[in-house]
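User: Hey, my collaborator sent me this sequence without any context and asked if I could get a structure. I don't really work with proteins. Can you help?
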Amino acid sequence: MFTGIIESIGSIRALTPKGGDVRVHVETGKLDLSDVKLGDSIAVNGVCLTAVELPGDGFAADVSRETLDCTAMNDLKSGSPVNLEKALTPTTRLGGHLVSGHVDGVGEVVARSDNARAVEFRIRAPKELAKYIAHKGSITVDGTSLTVNAVDGAEFLLTIIPHTLSETIMASYKPGRRVNLEVDLLARYLERLLMGDKAAEPASAGTITESFLAANGYLKS
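Assistant: No problem. I've predicted the 3D structure and written it out in C-alpha cell form, which is a compact way to encode the shape of the chain:
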C-alpha cells in the first residue's frame, strides 16, 4: 500500500527485454533506499513493482506482460522521469489517500491551462472508470494522490499547486500524454457491496445496471 505522496522523481536507466516481459532499472534520485530490501515494493508512476536488484543508486524490477498491457509503462524509455514512492509503514503519515499501486486504466491529458500560480489539467479516463470518479473525490494519477475538482462525463479536472508541480513529473504533462489512473479503493468496494448476493454470480449476471439500482431502491423512479 502507498499514500500517493511522491517521495522522489527518479529516471529510467534501462528497459531490458527478458523472456517476453521487461526488467526495468530505475535511478531513484533523492529517494532513501537505506531501509529497502530485496522483495520490497516501490511505486513507479503509480505501478507497484518489486525490487529484485539493489545496485546502490536505484533498483531493478521485473514488469510482467499484464502490467505492460494495462498501464502506460510501455511509453517509458531510457531517461524518462518517473514518480517514486516506497510502500507505507504503520508509522507513515497518510497525507494522501490509500493507494494500492494496482493501476485501473490509462487516461489521457486532453488540456492544460494556467490558473494563477497553479496549473489545471483536464484528463480523459477510460469510459469504464467514469463511474468511480467523483467531484472532490480522490484519484491517483501516475502515483500522485489528487483531488478531483470537476467531472464532465469521462473527463475530470485537476488543479495542481506549484509544490506538486515541482515534486512530481506533472510539470512535464502536455495534451496527448498517457497517464496511469487508480480510482479510490472505497468506490471499488462500494460497487461490490451494492451487488449483495449477486456478487457470487458469474460476471455477466452480476453487472450493476441502472435497472438493478432502481429495483433495489438506490434510484427513485
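In plain terms: The longest helix spans residues 185-194. You can pass these C-alpha cells on to your collaborator as they are.
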